[in-house]
Design goal:
With about 350 residues, the chain is of the alpha+beta class. It has 9 helices and 14 strands.
Length: about 350
């Protein structure tokens, strides 16, 4: 079924759910697939960032393949009035992201969102022995930060201006917000990493917060190992159009690193945010970090166990000054992560992406 047919079908069903029904929380069943897609359509229309949530077939396939675990709030009539999930999101298939939590409007104010999150993290994640949980928390309010902090999520980095959100609950005006990247490490894997000494204080702080064990080679700019003349950069990318955010994962590092990044990013025109994800276990990563700093990329953070072989480390560039004074920060860890990333931003200096215009 094509997208137009899918949305036409969901539009015809969006007023079919009766109000004030009782409901139970339960693991997603295949018969729930249509109701799950409908719940996303009721809340987001056709604008949810991942269009797989609108596909009955894809939803069933993801659950069968165990790339997604989901809980639903199901009424006696079989209507789905809320859903939450964890799903694979990174090069490491053992990392699951908390997300896709929706409650349709007529069933809000019943504490259902909290119930769904609790079931997701305390039942689904534990039953399926998820080793690493990942999530994101916006900084224009502290609601999400408070909820996930209570379950043990801790920040390890911050993406500046990477998401567009409503400026306020009653406003349709959109604004850029910074997003925390947060993790729960249920099973760490000790490994060796090569990291730039310029960020030693920040890295040691994150390692301590997440109770990680790493054999770290601290490398300064003078001793950073350079890729060979023949080495070429290999990378993959993800572009999120609504907020004009580009994420580039560097699979292998060559001397052409900066040129390759410029070539890819310029093909998207004006951007709000770029993140460059590096492999901490590559001996060329410190060289890459120093090269990126020369090109006005600043500290983003650590990504524990992001790859099957080990950690990730990311640098970033934003098109405008992050609104540090407006950020709402709940935990001491959040405050510290912003302190470190803000300090490096100020050292690098604001640098518009590609052109002086700001999106």
């Amino acid at each position: 079924m094509d997208k137009n047919s899918i949305f036409s079908r969901l539009e015809s069903l969006k007023n079919s759910i009766e109000k004030n029904q009782s409901f139970v929380l339960d693991d997603f069943k295949e018969d729930d697939a249509l109701g799950a897609t409908l719940s996303y359509y009721i809340v987001y229309g056709n604008s949810f960032p991942y269009d797989g949530v609108y596909s009955v077939e894809r939803t069933i396939e993801e659950v069968r393949n165990k790339t997604k675990y989901a809980v639903v709030a199901r009424t006696p009539k079989g209507d789905i009035v809320g859903i939450s999930a964890i799903y694979t999101c990174a090069p490491n298939p053992k990392i699951y992201e908390l997300g896709g939590l929706v409650v349709i409007p007529d069933y809000r104010n019943k504490d259902l969102a909290k119930q769904l999150m609790r079931y997701t993290l305390e039942v689904l994640a534990k039953r399926n022995k998820v080793e690493v949980l990942f999530g994101e928390a916006v900084t224009h309010h502290t609601i999400t930060q408070k909820m996930i902090d209570g379950y043990g999520y801790r920040a390890s980095g911050a993406e500046f201006n990477s998401l567009l959100v409503k400026a306020s609950k009653d406003s349709n005006e959109l604004c850029k917000t910074t997003v925390f990247l947060v993790f729960i490490i249920n099973k760490d894997i000790e490994h060796s990493v090569f990291l730039p000494s310029i960020y030693k204080s920040f890295i040691e702080y994150v390692i301590n917060v997440h109770n990680l064990t790493r054999a770290i080679a601290w490398i300064d700019e003078a001793t950073a190992e350079t890729p060979s003349d023949s080495a070429k950069t290999d990378c993959s990318q993800f572009y999120y159009e609504p907020s004009k955010t580009l994420k580039i994962t560097i699979n292998s590092i060559g001397l052409d690193l900066v040129k390759e990044i410029e070539k890819i990013s310029s093909s998207f025109g004006l951007l709000n945010s770029i993140q460059i994800i590096l492999k901490s276990f590559s001996k060329y990563t410190p060289w890459a970090v120093f090269e990126l700093r020369k090109n006005k990329f600043s500290l983003g953070g650590m990504l524990p166990l992001w790859f099957s072989e080990g950690d990730g480390f990311f640098m970033q560039k934003a098109s405008a000054q992050p609104e540090f004074d407006k950020m709402q920060l709940f935990s001491e860890v959040a405050k510290k992560v912003i302190e470190y990333t803000k300090e490096d931003w100020n050292k690098i200096g604001e640098c518009p992406i590609h052109r002086p215009e700001v999106v």
